[in-house]
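User: Teach me something about this protein's shape.
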Amino acid sequence: MVLFVTGRCRRTCWYCPLSRERKGRDVVFANERQVSSPSEAIEVAESMSALGTGVTGGEPLLELDRVVEYCHALKERFGPDHQIHLYTGLAPDEAVLRRLQGGLVDEIRLHPPHEVWPQIIETDFARSAALARKMGFLVGIEVPALPGIEDLAAALPLFDFLNINELEWGETCAAAMRDRGLELDDGMHNAVKGARQWAERLTGDPKVHFCSSVFKDSVQLRERLKRIAANTARPFEEVTDDGTVVYGGVLEPEGAVDGFLEGLDDDEYAVFEGGRIEMAWWVLTEHGAGLPGGKKYVVERYPNGGMVVEVTPL
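Assistant: First, the predicted structure itself:
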């Protein structure tokens, strides 16, 4: 699960991809759902049988009490094997690390600003990493692929890993990317042209891991959706290979529909206020002609009442 604890951040990274819905706003999201309490975040984690949580932002350490509260609740509910890693653009000192210790946060992923990469071993990030590792945390660097990323090679002995994410085009950073002469790699994904080649200057080291834009979209997101769908799909919804769910619907049926519904099992349909009916799409396509009037359609959407992907009229 991705736990977004705040959109507040004191840095102004030109490549920041946060949406307008989150950037600069003090809001909390568990995956795509806005939440207001640890119990609501736990509901989201349960819906996908989450094995761990990535705490992110904004800058999570600006809301340290909130981080501790949510992490404590997650560990209490799911146990010590629920792995929690925290992203931060700060270099936490001993006092902050002590708050995160005690089985709350297992791993810290530092995001040093681009301008300090050439001097990384002389920065507070290197000193923070040494201290955190001594205190028992796994510690690494996680940054987007940017020109000059090879400067981080000097710091590899100080860290457990270096994660490089393919630089992505975003709604709020598009103008800054155009100003720097950057462009999309293709018309299908958000990857920035050249980012993969910048990352390849370091990917020969076993501590270095590269996450492509395609992998994040087509594998990580899909697997998360499939886990959610497996737990939340209604009996009459079909779960697709992409983790979406498909069902049939009837809007404003005209006349009595009791006779039609009597021929179905209770778990093959649901009736909502206003007369809307949802049912197995294959039942609707095969037998929908027996329903008087109304608009009939097949819906594909993200699981658990998520975003609608496609509506096909029948």
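Now, about its shape. The radius of gyration is 24 Å. The chain has a mean pLDDT of 90. If you'd like, I can walk through any region in more detail.
User: That's plenty for now, thanks!
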